Structures are given as C-alpha cells and as structure tokens.
Amino acid sequence: MSLRNLKHNILTRLAAALQRASDAAARRYPPRFANTPHNLTIQFPRRIHGAEHISVGDDVFLGPNTLLNAITQYPRSVMTSERHATAPTRYQPRIEIGNHVSATAGLQLAAVEHICIEDDVMFASNVNITDALHGFEDADIPYKYQPLFRIAPIRIGRGSWIGQNVVILPGVTIGEQCIIGANSTVTKSIPARSIAFGNPARVHKQWNATSRQWERVGQAAE
After folding, report:
1. What is the rounded CA–CA span in Å between residue 173 and residue 50?
2. CA spacing 20 to 30 A to 144: which of 1, 81, 153, 206?
3. What are the sequence ranges of the domains in the chain?
4. Catalytic residue numbers?
5. What are phi and psi of 4, to 5 degrees?
6. What pLDDT was estimated at residue 85?
7. pLDDT at 221
8. How far apart are the first and last CA of the chain?
9. What are the backbone angles phi and psi of residue 29, rounded to the nearest 5°?
10. d(Cα 35, Cα 80) in Å, to the nearest integer?
11. What does the alpha-carbon distance between residue 135 and residue 144 come to, in Å, rounded to a whole number?
12. What residues contact 17, with CB distance under 8 A and at least 6 apart?
C-alpha cells in the first residue's frame, strides 16, 4: 500500500470514529425537551431554542445543521434597533415531531403557534418550515423590524416524503403519504396520497386505491 493510500485510510477511519463519537454524544446529551424521547439523535452542529415547547417522538434521527426554533417572543434584540424599537409580542409555540421521523440535514422548523410533524415522515436536506412570515406592510421600514404576520399552524401527515430544498409556508396541511418534489414552495394544503411539486406546488398525481397505482390529476376523468 502506498503512503498516500495509507494516509487516506487512516484519515477516513479517524473521521468515521469522530462521527461515531459525535453521534454518541448527541444521543447521550439531548436537549431538555417537553418530553423524554427514546433513541433520539440530532447530530451536531445543531441549534435548538425553546426546547421546553418542543416534543419529539421515539427513534427520531435529524442530521446536522438542524434548527428547531420555538419562538416565545418577537422581536428579539438582534431584530431591533434604536431607530426601530418595537414592543415584543409574546407567543406560546408548540413543535411536535412524531415517532420514526428522519431528516438528512439542514431541517429548519420555526414556530410561534404550532408545527406538527406526524409519524414516519422523511425529510431530504435543507427543508424550511415556518408558521409565520416577516411583515412587509411598510416598504419604508426594514422588514426585519416589522411584526410577524400570516401566523397559521402547519401539519405534515404521517408517512410523507418532503424533498430537497422544499419550503412550506404558514397554514399548510400536507396529508398523509404525500410526496413533495424537490425545490417546491408549498403555499396551499395538499390532499392525502398526492404527489405535488412546483413553485407554487400543485398536485400532479394522486393514488388510486382501486387500481393501486398513481394517476395523473384528471386522468381518471379522461
């Protein structure tokens, strides 16, 4: 074996060992959530705010760069200035993550009201879900200093698959066993057992329980 290959093998094994140690630490020292989940891994690095307002099911795996943000007050100091001082609004957020949920990396959940992820949901990387938007009612005030608005709960149904770089906006319910295609922005609710994609996302196929296959929307009527 060449010296170069030997170095590569040593570094590869060292990296794998460090990852195992990091995962073990992540499991051993979980955040203090509202409940006590079993067999939970949220890989480092991670950012979790308002853990007491977050409940997580058993056998959950969330990859690195997870952000779970239960927002109890807005704005925080970083979102204010002397020129644009705003009295903070208090919230009672809830984030619920079911059993056997998995996310590859970069899952971002931000709630001032309620985000519910049901059992067995699978997330690809870089999914953003938020139940409120930054205000933009005044184009003369920087948007970071305006109040939150369009606050509405979000629910992701059991067994659904949310693709890469998906954004899910306030008030959306995604039914069970749905597929949301990569790079989609979901602005309206999606019925159960549907395949939806686009910007904004719309339903392209639905599951036919009789024929046991996916059918394009409108295909049955044709």
Report:
1. 23
2. 153
3. 1-30, 33-216
4. 134
5. -65, -45
6. 79
7. 39
8. 64
9. -125, 65
10. 33
11. 8
12. none
